[in-house]
Amino acid sequence: MRDLLIDITRLIGRFMQGRLPTGVDRVGLAYIEHYRHRALAEVRWVGRGFTLSRGLSDRLFDRLLCPCERHRTATRMLVARGIIAAMGRPAVTHRLLLNTGHSGLEHHGYARVLARRRVQPVFLLHDLIPITHPEYCRPGEGQRHRTRLNTMLDLARGIITNSQTTLEELGAYARRIARDLPPAMAAPLAPGLLAMPPAPRPLDAPYFVVLSTIEPRKNHWLLLHVWRQIIADLGASAPRLVVIGQRGWECENVVDLLERCESLREVVLERSECSDTELVNYLHHAQALLFPSFAEGYGMPLIEALSLGVPVIASDLPVFAEIAGDVPEYIDPLDGRRWRQVIESYAVADSGPRSAQLERMARFAVPSWKQHFAVVDTFLERVCA
User: Fold this and answer.
1) Are the C-beta atoms of 6 and 32 separated by less than 8 Å?
2) What is the pTM assigned to this prediction?
3) Which residues contact 219 (CB under 8 A, 6 or more apart)?
4) Please, which residues have CB within 8 angstroms of residue 64's CB and are 6 or more apart in sequence?
5) Is 196 helix (H, G, I), strand (E, B) or coil?
6) Would you say 335 and 225 are in contact if contact means Cβ atoms under 8 Å apart?
7) Residue 78 in contact with residue 67, Cβ under 8 Å?
8) What is the mean pLDDT of the chain?
9) Which of 191, 184, 157 lies closest to 375, judged by CA?
10) Which of 44-58, 153-167, 346-360 has the weakest average pLDDT?
């Protein structure tokens, strides 16, 4: 018997919309890869949860792990067929339900559905950013995230966090609202990208990569203004900046610079649709990954870059120091002058600071999914006992 349920609602929804996977999605896919042989797929529709059959679960797991655009319509039909079939069967109860993407937790009916079905949820919490930094999120997201966290605290058989920093923030939040903290533990995440041998350089000139959805928290605006200054001084010899990621919300000022700033054209390249193979190759040949975020719950691109032997220039956030130690070059996310200095030094072929980081990188141990799931497997056994 398969003793786990995995909520794939978010992953299926994004796949059918043609959206590229975010860091949260890559974690969800890693959980499917690890647990698929002991799990059934769970999907939510119109406020209800439906457990799909073994055969349909396996087919949908395959579709998510090896996505293909031409399968979107067929996948929609598979899900519909699974929901209709599940309506005629007794609901699956007394199983652990893994929800790795905060999916559905903002709906007040979510708790009633789980209670009625008597499943035991284990949630993976990625961050508390909408509460700690609401200014970087969509309007109303702070209250929605409070609802998610309160649902976790009220219902969870266990909570997994991606970092000790996130776990401590969760504990502080629970104390602040006078709620008990369910069994909880931190399990660092592994890279979401597979290591691949590098292909030929995508650009002849030296270049840097910023990898994330374009949104205010990621601080693209600072980098683009730094690049305007670099271009003004260096002209055609300025290093390139490759912006990899889809456009998100409230990023109009960044989009205006990308689309209408004459000096940035031909020097700043936007890659909103980028396959994993292309992404890895861009990282392989980059002078460094740039990560100037104002807040993060983890920072998977940082781990992915270091796993490929690529230097990182990042904001001086506590979670980055937790997961990468002293390896990256850390800078205040508001210190544009310092960002420019370090970028220009890393652009030089025989850069001393860049070489020093490569030496520090030699002692960095890349987290693995094997290590992550060894911790999680033990945790799930404990919460079931």
Assistant:
1) yes
2) 0.92
3) 292, 293, 294, 315, 333
4) 8, 11, 12, 15, 29, 32
5) coil
6) no
7) no
8) 92
9) 184
10) 44-58
DSSP 236-303: GGSPEEEEES-B-SS-HHHHHHHHH-GGGTTTEEEESS--HHHHHHHHHT-S-EEE--S--S--HHHH
Indicate left, alpha or beta for 188 from its phi (over 0: left) and psi (-120 to 50: alpha).
beta
| Rg from Cα positions in the chain | 22
DSSP run (H or E) holding 53: none
Cross-strand bridge partners of residue 211? 244
Rounded-to-integer distance, Cα 380 and Cα 383, Å: 5
Pairing between β-strand 48-51 and β-strand 39-45 as defined by DSSP bridges: antiparallel
| SS3 (DSSP) at 64 | helix
DSSP-based three-state secondary structure for 169: helix
Residue found under tokens 């031909």 = 266
Per-residue pLDDT at 71:
77
Tokens of 168: 């401590």
Tell me what pLDDT residue 309 has: 94
Burial 198-217 (b: 16+ CB within 10 A, else e): eeeebeeebbbbbbbbbbbb
The number of beta carbons lying within 10 Å of the beta carbon of residue 171 is: 13
DSSP 214: B
d(CA 303, CA 307): 6
Tell me which residue of 260, 256, 228 sits closest to 241, measured CA to CA.
228
- The structural domains of the chain, ordered by start, are 4-190+369-384 (3.40.50), 207-361 (3.40.50.2000)
Please state, in angstroms and rounded to a whole number, the distance separating the CA atoms of residues 157 and 355. Answer: 47
| 1 has a pLDDT exceeding 70 | no
Residue type for 177, please? Answer: I
Q: How many residues does the chain have?
A: 385
In angstroms, the CA 49 to CA 39 distance is 15
The reported pLDDT for the residue numbered 82 is 83
Q: DSSP E strands: which ranges in 308-369?
A: 312-315, 329-331
> Diameter of the chain by CA atoms?
69
Contacts of 352 (CB under 8 A, 6+ apart): 345
Residue with tokens 């305007």: 228
Measure the CA–CA gap between 237 and 366, rounded to whole angstroms.
34
Find tokens 């072929």 and name the residue. 349
pLDDT digits (tens, 9 = 90+) for 347-365: 998 899 999 999 999 999 9
